[in-house]
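Late entry, written up from scratch paper. The run itself happened at the end of the previous shift, but nothing got recorded in the book at the time, so transcribing now.
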Amino acid sequence: MPTSSDSPASGGTPQRPDALAAAAADAQAGAPGAGPAPVTRERPAPILRLEDVAAGYGGAPIVTGVSLNVGPGEVVAVIGPNGAGKSTLLKAVTGRLSVMTGTVTFNDRDITNIRGHLLARIGMGYVPQTKDVFDTLTVTENLEMGGYLLTKQQVATRIESALSTFPALAKARTRTAGKLSGGERKMLAMARVLMLEPTVLVLDEPTSNLSPDMSRSVLRDQVRRLADAGTAVLLVEQKAFEALGVSDWAYILVGGRVEIAGPASEIRDRPDIREVFLGQSAQGSASRSAARGHSSPRPA
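Output as recorded:
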C-alpha cells in the first residue's frame, strides 16, 4: 500500500502547484533575478543509473520518466514537496516496488525489478525510513544480523569497524535498539547496512523524527563522511535545505517527475528555488545561518 505522501491524486499522479511549475521553468530558463542557471560540472562515472523509470501502485504510476545517476563518492539528493514520489522512487530502485517502465543499472548490470535481498549481495544497501532496526535485539545483535552473508570472523571484524565509524554505538553495544535515542537508532540502521560494505547506499529520510541539531549531525557527520570514503549515496530527504548542504548533486522531483537537476550548491543558493521549493527565503536562511554561526557544510 502506498504511503499517504506518495498516494496519487484522484484520477492520476499528484498535481503540481503552479508556483512549483513556474519555479522549475524559471530555473531551467535562467529567469531574470533568479540567478544563473546551474552549470553542468564533471561528475564521476555513475555506478547507479536510472533511465526513464516509471513506478507506482496498481495501475497508476507515482513517478514517471525519472532518469538520474549516482557516482562513487557522491551524495545525490532527491528532494521535493510531499507527494512528489520520492520514497516510491527509492522502493523501485531497491526492488521493493515494481518498475513499470525504464531501467535501473548497477555497475553496468541491469537490476530492474531484482529483489532487495539479491541487491544486497551485489553491493547495494538500503536504509528505509521506518522499521530500520530490530528493536528487541542489542546493538551488537543488530550488526550481526546485518552481516548475515559473512563468515564469523568477518562479522567480528566489521562490527569493530562499524563501532569505530559510529563511536556513540560502541558505548551502547549491549543496549537493545528499542532503548536507543533517535540519532543512535539512525546510526545503527546505517551501521547494520554497512556491515556488507555496499558500494551504493540508499537512504530514505534518515533524519525523520530527529531534532534539527541531530538531523544536521547525521547528514554532515555520517552521510557526508561515508561518501567521502568512496560510497555512492542516494539520499531522499524532506529537510531539503540541509540535504543540499551535504550533497554534490540534486534532483528536484515534482509531481513524480524530475523538474530540475544540477549541482546541489547552486540549487541551494538560488533565491527562487529556496523560497518556493524549500519553504524559506534567502534572507531568512542567511539570518538563521548567521545566528547559528554555521557556514555551508559542503562548499561548491
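The chain has two domains: 46-123+199-293, 133-197.
(Scratch paper discarded after transcription.)
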